[in-house]
Design brief:
The chain is α+β, with helices and mostly antiparallel strands. Helices cover 38% and strands 25% of the residues. It starts with 11 loop residues before the first strand and ends in a 6-residue tail after the last helix.
Amino acid sequence: MPVEPNRDHQSAAVGGQVIEPIRLAGGWSGHVLTGVASLPDGGNEPLALPSVDDWPETLSTLLGETDPNIDCEILKHSENTRVFRGRLSLGNRTIEVIAKQRRVVGALPRLASLFRLSRERHNWERALLLGRIGVPTALPLAILERTRPQRESWLITWAIPGVVDLQQFALMHLSPKNSSGAHRVKSILTDRIVDLFARLDRNGLHHRDMKGSNILVTGCDGPVEQLGIWLVDLDGLHRSQQSQRRRWQPVVRLAVSLQPYSSITRTDAVRFLRRYLERLQLPADSWRRRWPRLAARVQHYAAQSRKRKRQKLDGFDGA
């Protein structure tokens, strides 16, 4: 049975985000996002979110799994993790969300979990931070955790509508037969990705897994000027000391993930490098000096990736 939201603490407003505490029966506690200053894609219009009073009944139903009619699509299901896409009724509206549930399984992991934040808590905080610095990502809507009878957490985020990842986009929309149209599309996407990298760099953030499948593209069916990108899978996002190697590691990782796609050419890579150098306020013509070293790192990393994949397949008999 749902309980009233916890009113012991006032809501916190940080960077235009209004975050309210919430407490539910069964030892569950957490927070919900009830207000943001602007849309996640950088628009200027305010985004109306459900109030804290809209959440208890829906969350209690979700946690108890008492409603067999919950409309959801299972994306991942393992011993300790479940991820699904579904629609939640909140107040007088229905919102499509991605919900991630994680249980800590095993004695040692349970002991370790007592001394560190859960992955869901980390990703909740990372997503809020990205929203404050203007990096589009899936809007975090609610975080819930409990420690008894076992350590368990839920993270609920807004499901970004009408997206494909960057690798799928390269395969589906960048046909070499339409070189003039593809050039315009790639130029706009390059600017969007350069802006994303520059914002992360300026705020001391480093993504260890910056690959094409973690960059989502929206607006594929509209004018090219409406194309947008979104960063997802925030497990790899960390604060780090600025160094030349760390600064370029995400660039190298992204380049490797896009190598198999013939529509992404050397010219596109050089264009990205020149624009990124300009955003970092470094001489754009220095790309000639940096390019050979970066290209060598890309080839080295790609060779290592292929080797790791072969090692994983060793002994696999196809049965």
